[in-house]
Every structure is written in C-alpha cells, then in structure tokens.
Amino acid sequence: MASTRRHKPPVCTKAYALAALLCLESVVVIAALVLFGVAYPDRFRSRLWRNGGEEGWCSNPRLRIYFYANHEEPPEIPLIWSQRLTTSNTAISFLSLAVLFARITMAALEYSARCTNVAYDAFLAVLWACSAAAQNGADLSDPAHLMPRPWYLDRSCDEAWVGNKGWCQLAKWGFVWAIIAA
Fold it and tell me: Which residue among 29, 58, 150, 160 has the highest number of C-beta atoms inside a 10 angstrom radius?
C-alpha cells in the first residue's frame, strides 16, 4: 500500500520571515521613538551639560553668561549639547516610523518592492549612523576642559549627580539604540 502522508509546508515561509522582520523593525522604531521622544525638547541635554561642566568634564554652559556680560561672542554650542541634535534624532525616529508604516502597508498588499526597501534601508542607515556619530561628538568649546567624547559615554552614570543618573542612562541608551538602528 502506498503511503498517504501529506507534505507539510515549511514552518519558516517567506511570509513568516517578513512578519518577523517587520516585528523586529517595529521594536527598534518604537523604542527609538520612546527614547528620543523622552529627550525632546530638552529633558536631559542641558542637565547633563551642566553636570559635566560643573564637574570639569566638559565646557560649562553657565560660563556663557560671562561672555555676554563682557560683550564678547560666546563660542558656538557644541553639537552634542545642541537642540539641533535632539530635534534631528526625534525627526529620524518619526521618519523611521513612516517607513515602517509604508513597509507594513506594502506587506499587507503583497507588494514586493525590493529596490524601494533597499533604498529605505540605506537612507535610514546613513541617518542613524550620522545620529550615532553626532551623539559621540566632541565638546571642544572650552580649551581648559576639552571633551573628545561625551562624558556620560566615558564615565559611569554613578558619577553623575543624583537627579541626573536616570537621564545619563537614557542618554547612553539613545546612543546604543542609534547604533542598533543603523
């Protein structure tokens, strides 16, 4: 007698793989939105800058007052401490969310757009790499307190002021998450 076994399809089909990748991307994008959304507009950037400046680890933002009082032009605010970095990280997170929605829509419509997805991946990878590089940027505005890398990436958050320890951890996670997203 002939065997009448049915052939089972493989568990890991193309649809399951795509769903798993979209779920993974959703986790990365939502976590980035939360991390950088918490940082926006200035929840911890100025606190960490002031903390590092008072401890002598980087330039001190309070010294900018002396430049204004003496009618001198203060040095440019380093990118690592600027509102521009916080805003751009938040914008990259929202752009990643828009790309994720586009991918989910294309998957639901069973539309295969490999070239478009590769272009999205390349574009977002460049943006996230630039974000990580900027978050790892230097503060060279005070010659007496040069900081080649943010102090909270070089030091333990236990060295931060008590009220800034959680913000220090969030800043570290934001940097790590930008690398993961890239």
Answer: 58
User: Tokens 């933002």 sit at which residue?
Assistant: 61
C-alpha span between 55 and 58 (Å, rounded)? 8
* Span 121-156, pLDDT tens digits: 999 999 999 999 999 999 999 999 999 999 999 999
In DSSP terms, 139 is beta-bridged to 147
For residue 80, being part of any structural domain is answered with: yes
Return the number of other C-beta atoms located less than 10 Å from residue 81's C-beta. 25
Question: What's the predicted TM-score (pTM) here?
Answer: 0.87
Rounded-to-integer distance, Cα 79 and Cα 10, Å: 51
Q: Name beta bridge partners: 147.
A: 139
Q: Which among 46, 26, 179 has a CA at the least distance from the CA of 99?
A: 26
Q: State the DSSP H helix or E strand holding residue 100, giving kind and residue range, or none if neither.
A: helix 83-108
In a domain, 2, yes or no: no
Q: Do 60 and 53 touch, CB atoms closer than 8 A?
A: yes
Residue 33 lies in a domain: yes
pLDDT tens-digit map of 27-50: 999 999 999 999 999 999 999 999
Which range of residues forms the domain containing residue 107? 15-181
pLDDT, tens digit, for every residue of 73-90? 888 999 999 999 999 999
Nearest partner of 178 among 101, 80, 82, 103, judged by Cα: 80
